[in-house]
Amino acid sequence: MTTEQQTTALPQPSPECFSWDYRLQLISLGFGFYTSVFLLSHLLSLALCCTYNALPGKEKVFWNLAATRAAFGIQSAVAGLRALTEESALNKDKVRGQEDWSWFHILTATGFFVFENIALHASSVAFRSFDLPLATHHFFALSGFAGAVVFDSQGHFLAMVTLLLEMSTPFTCISWMLLKVRALWCLFVKVKYLLQKMSLLYPY
């Protein structure tokens, strides 16, 4: 069997994956889903977490972004590991292989990176700060996945494996949140200790 015959025999994504209406719907789905995670994190943290309520505004935004990035990191890990371990068109043809599930991750990840860029620049304006390395990272992430949507004849193997770079994100984000909880708890304990000492020195 020739290479051309092998390529022809590979499973092809459904025609709707090449419809711009379908693509924009899934990009919007990704954007809407991760915006909802951000807002849900804010509402739950506001209701349930004393640490969150004590944080300054900028760190509250970062807290919610951390929760959102952790959720995206889980999706990225699933997509990347599937690309590496499953016998799929992506594995058989790493240059042109595509499947419906890989299109789903490409499009929803594009929606996530749109959300990330909007959140980053909105918070930069709101808090009058600008993180150039982070902005550069987000720009190239969005450009790469938007490019995979526009140049739709290219395979998805590299894009899916690249998502594995987000595999550690849930752990780093949750660690940051726990450190914030611990830091404020330690501060509370110190203040409580000082107040106890003062009450002993000045009982009246």
TrEMBL record:
Residues 61-204 form the TLC domain. It is found in: Membrane. It is a multi-pass membrane protein. It holds the Pfam family TRAM_LAG1_CLN8. Signal peptide: none annotated. It comes from the Eukaryota. InterPro entries: TLC-dom, TLCD. Keywords: Membrane, Transmembrane, Transmembrane helix. The chain crosses the membrane at residues 31-55, 101-120, 157-179. This is Protein cln8. The lineage of its organism: Eukaryota, Metazoa, Chordata, Craniata, Vertebrata.
